[in-house]
User: Fold Peptide/nickel transport system permease protein from Phytomonospora endophytica.
Amino acid sequence: MTFLLRRFVFYVVTAWAAITLNFFIPRMLPGNPVQSLINRYQGQLSTDATQALYAMFGLDKETSVWQQYLDYWGNLFQGDFGLSFTYFPTPVAEVIEQSIPWTLILVGVSTLISFVLGTLAGVYIGWRRGRWTDSLLPVGSFFSAIPYFWLGLIAIAVFAVAWPVFPASGGYDGAFVPSWDADFIWSAVYHGLLPAVTIVVSSVAGWALGMRNMTVTVSSEDYVTVAHAKGLKERTVMFGYAARNAILPNISGFALSLGFIVGGTLVTEIVFSYPGIGYVLYQGVSSKDYPLMQGVFLIITLSVLVANMLADLAYAALDPRTRQEG
Assistant:
């Protein structure tokens, strides 16, 4: 209980620091978000309208940065992220609500598939080391070393241009309206297959290599030798003794991946013009959209912290050595 309490206090302090940085860092960037909005309307806004925009977003000179910081915390406790400059006058919460399901489905499913496939492959290759399966690792490492955007561009060039099997961009067919209709769901799945395969191919080798190395290390431990001596089945020893201990580092990596699922694979979403939260963040940074950047960064930060808390709980369940009371 003491361990969990200390971790909880640590995460609370970390959340406060992250939210504070989340407020100040966008304001340290060069440029003016209101000016970007004015430029978008090509000078069609009057002087009074410009001053009203500064006042609306709390960026007028009469409002100090400290007051803006206090107002920011007050709005956060009310669930108000402000209005987006990029999607003006849509609230940031609504923009995030519309984009985050796309990222959760695409990157979440892709990450889970790559983790499961990579972990199982790593256990098998590490357990049967020295066989032909070891030759698969360099091939996988080659694909994992290729940057997401380059692999995405190659996938588009091959499977969307030269051999037009999949669409090159978008999250669904423009003829549909987002709904739970079967045709729309199929269109969304069809548009998401190519970026999903890109993510899986790029990341599965990393999971496999890490799991393979840990399995090789763990398989020489005394408790694995004793399990063999007891006459247990090979599958039981492989998964119940070796894999259970070898997977601990992968659990940490997977927890961090779960946290960054919310942020999305930014470059992949940009390359495929996929309507996820990573693409929204890119638009917010391009437009110097303070509220949108802060809202997206906040969601990503909290997701990473929650994922790390879950990793601590998983560690305590899998590895008794982390339970300090024992």
Q: What stands out?
A: The chain has 14 helices and no strands. The mean pLDDT is 77. Residues 2-77 form one domain.
